[in-house]
Amino acid sequence: MPGDNEPARGPHLATASVCMATYNGEKYLTAQIDSILEQLHADDELIIVDDASTDGTPELL
């Protein structure tokens, strides 16, 4: 039971932010993103930052 300083929470306890860094990851990127998205709820977010890839990663993102 929540105390005075704790909010009541439903089945989905919190919104999640997942951060992913990429560098020349074109070969695996689609599988990685699909895997992460399967584990997130509709109100969660996936943030992807590319570190100046020289393959097709930026275009894929």
Describe this structure in words.
With 61 residues, the chain is α+β, with helices and mostly antiparallel strands. It has one domain. It is built from 2 helices and 2 strands; from the N terminus they run βαβα. The protein has helices spanning 26-39, 57-60, and strands spanning 17-22, 45-50. Strands 1-2 form a two-stranded parallel ribbon. Helix 1 (26-39) links the parallel strand 1 (17-22) and strand 2 (45-50). The longest helix has 14 residues, at 26-39. It starts with 16 loop residues before the first strand and ends with a helix. The relative contact order is 0.28.
Task: From the structure above, extract its key features.
two-stranded parallel ribbon, alpha+beta, 2 helices, 61 residues
SS field, number of helical segments? 2
Distance between the termini: 43 Å
- Main beta-sheet strand count, sense and barrel state: 2 strands, parallel
Q: Which consecutive residue ranges, at least 5 long each, have pLDDT under 50?
A: none
Q: What's the average pLDDT?
A: 86
Task: Give the topology string: H per helix, E per strand.
Answer: EHEH
Question: Strand order within the widest sheet?
Answer: 1-2
Please identify the structural class as seen in this structure.
alpha+beta
Q: What gross morphology would you assign?
A: elongated
Kindly give the count of domains. Answer: 1
Count of distinct strands? 2
Rg of Cα set:
16 Å
- Which percent range fits the helix content? 25-40%
Classify the beta-strand content into a percent band.
15-25%
